[in-house]
Write a structure and sequence with these properties.
With 595 residues, the protein is of the alpha+beta class. It folds into three domains: 17-197, Jelly Rolls, CATH 2.60.120.260; 200-289, Immunoglobulins (Immunoglobulin-like, Sandwich); 294-594, TIM Barrel. The strands form nine sheets. An eight-stranded parallel barrel has the order 22-25-26-27-28-31-33-34, surrounded by four helices. A six-stranded antiparallel β-sheet has the order 4-3-5-10-7-8, with no helix packed on it. Strands 1-9-6-11-2 form a five-stranded antiparallel β-sheet, with no helix packed on it. Strand 20 and strand 21 (304-305) form a beta hairpin. Helix 3 (327-340) packs across helix 4 and helix 7 runs parallel beside helix 8 (583-594). It binds alpha-D-glucopyranuronic acid. Alpha-D-glucopyranuronic acid (GCU) binds at residues 181, 349, 412-413, 446, 471, 502, 550, 570, 572. Alpha-D-glucopyranuronic acid binds next to loops.
Length: 595
């Protein structure tokens, strides 16, 4: 019993200890259920392409004091940007901008004596320095996860000003690093909220089925404040369930209870209203219960084998050519996945906004959450291990109560030869398992060879991945070397389930002017044939547990410079950026209907 208690306490302590880099705090969870005041809307900005704002101390908003004074910057009279939203798609001069933009927002507030106030950011890409009334609150690194600052005692009665320095310059030792195949949308890309709480509040909780069980919930609750010893009740009214416990002097309570739940599944995505009540706070959530595990070479959902009919999605509204963030954006992307016949969305290559995760769960689509650990990460840089851990903590902390999230993906296409890569990612896997033992943990690899019509699938990381997740682009980056149905597989862990996490090729919607059997014309026929061949190969792929086309919509990438066919878009979508169905779409749709 004693060791058990230590384990679950450790999970929370890890969350706290690795609170965002520098001094942002790890965000409280389930913001939507709290008392919030939105700071979304127009923010005034100063564009700072050469980085002089730091020296001028822009956050001080100096005003000239006497006739001979002048101040060489001002928010006043500057352009305004919509928050949330990326800056690149809002002003022409920012289209390809990678650098600093200073944001300013004025707000009025009055905090009552017994309340606390937090300033919460859903995400800022990539570095954020945050100032309140001229005083620095702290910094955060990482473009896709939430963070917060407590501003109780700092916020003034009446008018206050927040200034945020946002910098989306690529960093060699950043996550991701400098080279990636998607658009680097900068800015305050997700919601900004003030959150008011009681002095002691429910900061965090973990309520999910215990690994391997269909009716036992195992988890914990954590309070934050001065009155840490309290009575706790977890209520699930629909199940007539009221589970009572007490927090200890550190504010911890362990939970464990049984109930005959209707399980969440793609066919019936059942969610229950769950209330976590302490003496000083109540937080309501919608939580589903399901089990997901690997047994032998199969993936089981609620103890039944499931074939993962997936698709890759970037967090982009393709027709607007902008970062996706609203519930409407999420609906558009997820409806397209549903229409294709998917039961899983792989949200690449970074944690997407909460609208995506929550809406997918409501629609019965499982979610694959992924860290921005992509290709050329500098694993031997002394700062990288800490950044990896911070991002892992922030992602898991935010989404751990979402039963729709079935998979934590910790890396994509990193290379075994990169110094310290194996050590760093093995350690990260262990840390992820310590935070949450209920979901599958996966690494995606593309380092296999394909010769003599044989895939050699090897990588030390596969020993730490519950799925053999493979990115292969046979038919596009490599020509077929034999009949697809006669492809052979030489897999390092031959007993694990195999998931084809990326495959496909490019086509421009409506392009059929060149020969359909030549890649250089970006024809729909060529792409269609790749999918026909791939599906033929899947028929004889050992241990296949699912496939995931690259990808749903064409998306922006500055790497894609063919001016006739690409125009700055990666054209591997099954749908064009305007949602037009390419021929390959029908092939996948048909396949998913059959599976
Ligand atoms: C890689 C990578 C994707 C990329 C794709 C492509 O496998 O994971 O992010 O865009 O290849 O070449 O289109």
């Amino acid at each position: 019993m004693k060791t058990e208690v230590k384990e679950w306490m450790l999970v929370f302590l890890i969350f706290i200890f690795f609170a965002g880099s520098a001094n942002a705090q790890t965000a409280m969870i389930n913001v939507q259920a709290r008392k919030t005041t939105s700071l979304n809307g127009k923010w005034t900005v100063i564009i700072d392409p050469i980085g002089v704002g730091e020296g001028k101390q822009v956050w001080q908003e100096k005003k000239s004091q006497k006739k001979t004074d002048f101040v060489e910057y001002s928010f006043e009279g500057g352009p305004e940007l919509q928050v949330p939203g990326d800056f690149n798609s809002q002003l022409c001069e920012l289209t390809y901008f990678e650098g600093t933009v200073w944001y300013k927002k004025q707000f009025n507030y009055s905090v009552k004596a017994d309340k606390r106030l937090f300033l919460h950011f859903g995400a800022v890409n990539y570095l954020a320095d945050v100032y309140l009334n001229g005083e620095k609150l702290g910094s955060h690194e990482g473009g896709f996860t939430p963070f917060q600052f407590e501003i109780t005692g700092k916020v003034k009665d009446g008018s206050n000003t927040i200034v945020v320095k946002v910098d989306n310059k690529r960093l060699g030792n950043g996550l991701p690093g400098t080279g990636y195949d998607w658009f680097n949308y900068g800015g305050i890309t997700r919601d900004v909220d003030l959150i008011e709480t009681n002095e002691t509040f429910v900061e965090d909780y973990f309520i999910q089925l215990k690994k391997g069980s269909l009716n036992t919930v195992s988890g914990w609750v954590k309070l934050n404040g001065n009155k840490l010893k309290q009575d706790i009740v977890v209520k699930i009214p629909e199940q007539n369930l009221e589970y009572r416990t007490k927090t200890d002097k550190e504010g911890w309570a362990k939970l464990e209870f049984n109930s005959a739940f209707k399980l969440w599944s793609p066919e019936k995505p059942k969610l229950y209203k769950v209330m976590v009540e302490s003496e000083t706070d109540t937080v309501a959530d919608e939580i589903g219960f399901r089990s997901v595990e690997v047994q032998g070479n199969k993936v089981l959902l609620n103890n039944k084998e499931i074939f993962l009919k997936a698709v890759n999605i970037h967090e982009e509204n393709p027709s607007k050519a902008a970062r996706a963030y609203t519930a409407e954006d999420a609906g558009m992307l997820l409806n397209a996945a549903k229409e294709l016949g998917c039961n899983l969305v792989r949200l690449v290559h970074y944690p997407h906004n909460e609208n995506m995760v929550k809406q997918a769960e409501r629609m019965g689509i499982m979610v694959w959450d992924e860290l921005p650990v992509y290709q050329h990460i500098q694993f031997s840089d002394s700062l990288v291990p800490q950044k990896l851990e911070t991002m892992l903590n922030e992602m898991v902390r935010r989404d751990k109560n979402r039963c729709g999230v079935a998979i934590w993906c910790l890396s994509n296409e990193t290379y075994p030869g990169t110094p310290n890569r194996n050590e760093a990612l093995i350690e990260l896997t262990q840390k992820c398992r310590a935070l949450d033992s209920t979901r599958l943990i996966v690494h995606v690899i593309n380092t296999h060879g394909y010769n003599n019509n044989t895939f050699k699938v090897w990588d030390p990381l596969y020993n730490y991945s519950e799925l053999i997740a493979i990115n292969e682009y046979v038919g596009w980056y490599k020509p077929w070397q034999g009949k697809p149905s006669e492809t052979k597989w030489d897999v390092v862990c031959p007993d694990k389930p195999v998931f084809i996490s990326e495959f496909g090729g490019e086509a421009k919607y409506g392009s059929n002017e060149g020969p359909g059997d030549e890649a250089a014309y970006w024809t729909e026929e060529y792409q269609q044939q790749i999918y026909v061949n791939q599906i033929e190969m899947f028929g004889s792929t050992p241990n296949l547990c699912g496939v995931c086309p690259w990808l749903l919509f064409d998306y922006r990438s500055l790497k894609r410079m063919n001016q006739v066919y690409q125009n700055g878009y990666n054209r591997k979508g099954l749908l064009s950026e305007h949602g037009e169905k390419k021929r390959a779409w029908y092939i996948v749709h048909e396949y998913y209907k059959r599976k």
